[in-house]
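Notes to self after the call with IL:
- keep both proteins in one doc
- input above output, always
- annotate only the second one for now

Protein 1:
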Amino acid sequence: MIASISMKCSPAKAGVHYNRAAMKQGWVYILTNGRNGTLYIGVTSNIAQRIWQHREGTIEGFTKRYGLKRLVWYGYFENLHDARRREGQMKGWKRAWKIELIETMNPDWRDLYFDLLR
C-alpha cells in the first residue's frame, strides 16, 4: 500500500534533503467517549500504537481529560502529509458532518480498535 518514492539525485551530491513525512503512510482517526459524545480528531503514522496510547492514558491532554478511548472512525492515506491536511479540514467541519462520516462507516459506534489488530 505504501507508494514507492523515487528520488533522482547523484550520489556525489552531499546534503540532499527530502520530506520524510511524504514517505510515511498516515491515518486520520476519530475517538469518542460514547455514542454522540465528545469527538476528537487525530492523525498518526502508526494507528494501532497511537490508539493504544490513548486507551492506556499515556497521552496527556484533551483525550485523557475527557476519557476518549473509543475508536469510531479511521481513514488511511498513503502519504502522512495528505493525512495531516485532511485532519485539518475535518477539524473545521460541522459536528453533524463528523457524525455522518462516523455513521457511514460505523453505524453502531462500536470500538474499531480491535479490528486494527486483526
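Protein 2 (the one to annotate):
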Amino acid sequence: MFDVIVFVAVVVAVILVAGRYLRTLRRGGCGCGCAGGGESHVARPMVADTNEAHYPYAAELTVEGMHCEHCLAAVESALDGIGGVWARASLPDRVRVLSKDPLDRASLVAAVEAAGYRVTG
C-alpha cells in the first residue's frame, strides 16, 4: 500500500511540473524560470569600467540555449564574475567578451557552463 501512495505522489508531481513548464513555453518563455518572458526590462549586470579602450583583448562566443533577457543576464553575470572581463550577450546566441588580460578560453567556457549554457563556437 505504501508503494502505491509513493507512486501516485510521484506521478502527480511529474504532471504538475510538466504542466507548469508547458504553460511557460506557451506564454513565450524559454523554460529558464523567466515566467513567460513578459518583462520588458531585466537588470543586466553592471561593470564598473565600461570604456572599451581599457579592454585590449576580445573574443566572440556562440552560446547555445539563450532565449530571453534572463538568459542573457545569467551568461553575462557568469562571465563578468571573471576578473577583468566585461561580457555583452545578444540574442539568439552571441556573446562578446572583452578583457583587460589575455583570455583563457577554457575559463570562459567553464563560466558559461556553470551558468547552465553551452558554448558551441
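Annotation: The chain has a mean pLDDT of 82. The CA atoms of residues 6 and 12 lie 10 Å apart.
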